[in-house]
Amino acid sequence: MPEDQLSELSTNSTARQTRDRPAVFLLLGAVVFLYLKLFTLPYTPVLLTGDQVYFWTDAQRMLDGQRIYQDFFQFTPPGTDLIFLAMFKLFGLNIWVTNLTVLLLGVALCWVCFRLARGIMHRSFALFTTTFFLVAVYGKILNATHHWFSILAIMAAVTICFESTATLRVFAAGALLGFASFFSQTHGVVALLAFSTFLLLQHSRNKTPWPDLLRRQATLFFTFLLSLLSLSTWFLATAGFQRLRYFQVTYVRQFMVEKVPGEFLERPNSLVLHSPAALLPYLIVAIAVAIYPATLWQCWRNRRNPGFPWDQIVLLSLVGSFLMLECAIHPNWTRFYAISLPVIVLTVWMFIRAAKPIPSAALLMSLIIVIFALRQIKSVYINQPIRIQLPAGEVATTPALDEMLSWLTQHTQPGDLFFRASWPGFYVPLHLRNPLFVDELVPREETRPQYVELAIQQLDANRVQYILWAANFDLHPSPHDHLNPLREYLRAKYTPVQVFSDGDTIWQRNDSFFTPRSTNPSPQQAR
What we know:
By secondary structure, the protein is α+β, with helices and mostly antiparallel strands. The protein has helices at residues 3-38, 52-63, 79-91, 95-118, 123-141, 146-160, 167-181, 187-206, 210-239, 241-257, 270-273, 276-301, 310-329, 333-338, 340-355, 359-383, 399-411, 427-430, 449-462, 484-493; strands at residues 39-40, 44-45, 386-390, 393-397, 418-420, 466-469, 494-499, 505-509. It folds into 2 domains: 32-250 and 280-379, no CATH class; 398-526.
């Protein structure tokens, strides 16, 4: 190879390494921050809570050979369950494995956030945007629920189409959107409609031939369906289309979506108003309502401006606004946090466009975020001061959880049957097994009467020794509470033997003989 070409390759390689170095340091910083949030030094994992616990428990049940939708209840697609199942198969049923999954997911989201921000702003502001997202949003939640996996796939699809909508890129984006629907049935579909709208607007702006638009649209929808059907084939073959449709569509529409929105969104109180961190979710919603119309208006005004990043801003705004509208149908803070990534990127972009700050200002703002990160890390040691050895390994936890975990550790063995009515967070840490088809029974509409009846049959058939009952289940009678038959069964067959400081009670079965396992009544009765 000629010497001048070698020199050019060397120069390009050096420049690329220089460009990539900040991203590498960013990801390393994300690893360190998340590790210090998820593990107390040197390596004790913090026992996490949140919606992710349902997917850990499902993965544990699949590890025991149970079948999703048939042997246990689930109303979301199986993608998140399979992620945790794969991690448990690789590394064992340990709490550090769940925390490692949360860490890896966070790093991947940071990488996508940086790539999106870098496409429309200076590198220093992209670093600030990603740091803010990591600390203020993901680091605050630390909840590897299905929404985050779905949003990761959607934002990766946006990243792919940021530079071009060539057929191959649209093909990859459609596949990723299908992958997103394998985690959350609505996010991927809504993002697909946003992508389709973007292609139509892009065609109208660029005056491209209609065959090009039709080819891209066909590619997008075809690869979406191909990806989703390929991932779902095994579950369609084993559980059946009707069963999947009932749990993923009918049940969700009837008993999850058709609720009073206030049930999921708390209003700010006097304490919240004095805490900027507590106000963050309200600010995200308020900013999102304003930012998407504002950015789309900017795109309309600059549709003839060749220097304006029209494609990038329109695509990100459409995907974000479609996700926002979808979230408004069934609002809760977990969903709002998960869809906040495009809001954050576009807000910083709008601020830069309006204020025109110098790049060094981003470094100062990033340092302020780092201070908040250190405060978050400190709070881990304050709020989870207890270390306890469990079957799933040593964990750091709160005094309230330590009280329950210590009692259960002394009175149960790994593999025992146990049921906690309010929350399935003890099965993986204690290696206990849930004998019921459902993961919880709560005094709300989503706990159907047939599930209560089936639960009583399964508790009786398995002669479950201990049940942990939540005190708040009996405080506020509700017309949507279907648990009275279970309460009567509990009083007839069980005796309270331990009341914890929060009022939750352990009930022990009256008869002295405990049968570890017997044939369960069929979950088909729950349909």
